[in-house]
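Record type: monomer structure entry
Structure origin: computed from sequence
Chain ID: A
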Amino acid sequence: MHHGERDFTFIPPFHDPMDLGMALIQWWNAMQPAFRQSPQSQIPAPIYQPTKGGPPVWAPMIKSGTSGFVSILILLCWWGRALPLRKQFQENSRPLWDQMVVDVGRVLVLMQAEAKEIVASIYDTEKAQKRKTEGDIKIVRKKKRLVFQP
């Protein structure tokens, strides 16, 4: 491996896969929109559609960096790879891992659908603004992102 490259085959050692899983569930739960959050840091409630007509709910979860969605996916993979390494006396976290995989997958599908709707509405707004001299929303392109300004 060369300097600066990541070893994606490396899995950090975990004392107990359940500990990793519970920490991930707690973080995942905290990231959720309010209508999905569960008490006591359980896997979020299996509610995937907010009330109709509200603002986008999944877009705020599209984050990059160390607190981003990719980190959730990596930790979920590490947890899954650590499952066979649990000791005989440790609790089996496989059922929780299975639930998390399903939940994260469903949220990803919803995030993708919402992102498509947002992008479509942005381009519709851009077209409308070209026809008007002043609009309610100003869209500024910065690098590869779209920034909304009132």
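Annotation 1: Residues 146-150 have pLDDT under 50 and may be disordered.
Annotation 2: Helices lie at 17-31, 69-82, 94-131.
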